[in-house]
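Batch 3, record 17
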Amino acid sequence: MADPRILVVEDETNVRELEAEILREEWEHVDTAVDGTDALRLLAEHVYAAIVSDLAMPKLDGRGLYEEVERRWPQAQGRLVFVTGYAEAEEYDAFLRQSGVPVVAKPFTIADLLGAVQRAFSPA
Amino acid sequence: MSRVVEPSAKRYRALVESSLGLICTHDLAGTLLSVNRAAADRLGYAPEELVGRSLGDFLAPSVKHLFPQYLDRISHAPADEGLMLVVTRGGEERIWTYSNVRDQEPGGPAYVLGHAHDITDIKRSDARAGEAEALRSVAQLALATAHEINNPLTVIIASLQLMAARGQVPEEAASYVERAIRAGEQIRDIVRNMSRITRLELSRQAPQLPPVLDLRKSSDG
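Prediction for the assembled complex:
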């Protein structure tokens, strides 16, 4: 993908803006969505090379987003990366194990986030 | 008449003696007149070692001062019930629930018929369940706190790193920013360890289901 587009899905404004800023250091096109529902709207409009999403969100959470992506854009499923706190990951443990979606733990470093997105471009 | 009463009295005596309930009689001054085997065993004595001693002698020091009040109540009311904290010969404190009634045979002095159950194990089990519940609440609060800390901590650490990576930190401030990042990472490690421990604690305390008695299986067998 010559000019990759990245989607950041996060309900916490500060974290969302920071993630987008970090990613813009490397890639030009970074869009943001405030929850899973907002993300679906953008996914219908653009093809994303990576989708960086929080897990616990209002309206549609990370798991719901994963299921919708699987249903509507199965080719994009391997481009998902979840960014989540250790605590909230507990209730999603089984889902994360089953889906195999890579997880970046909060609080992350810049290298953590950039590395995970880079790997999402070319999943093993 | 006496031929009919005598076997009946024997049966009652046998019933009291063999009962697992803790039974005694005492006079209105609290002196034990009789104690059945179960009650004596619970206290670690032979029944004959207890007769003639005051019931108050076997109360825990922390409740001994309440004994005169009990004697006063049972002297004026036909019955009294509640909890008593007794001390065994070995020094262990046990909780008994008692239900005592005052009685008087024609021409004889009034006395008290005491009946008690040892509920120490139940009480301790309730206390342990309460402690486990309290610990569980603390663990859940710790997890919720960890969750709330993670987002702002992400912003602090990554923002400082971003500033440093962009060269936006003046040279004289670089060491302070570096120190702030390290402190943030320390908080991150503390929160992660705390979350690990609380998750472990919560999983350890997950309520165990009692074994299921499968009647169908046993009748099939």
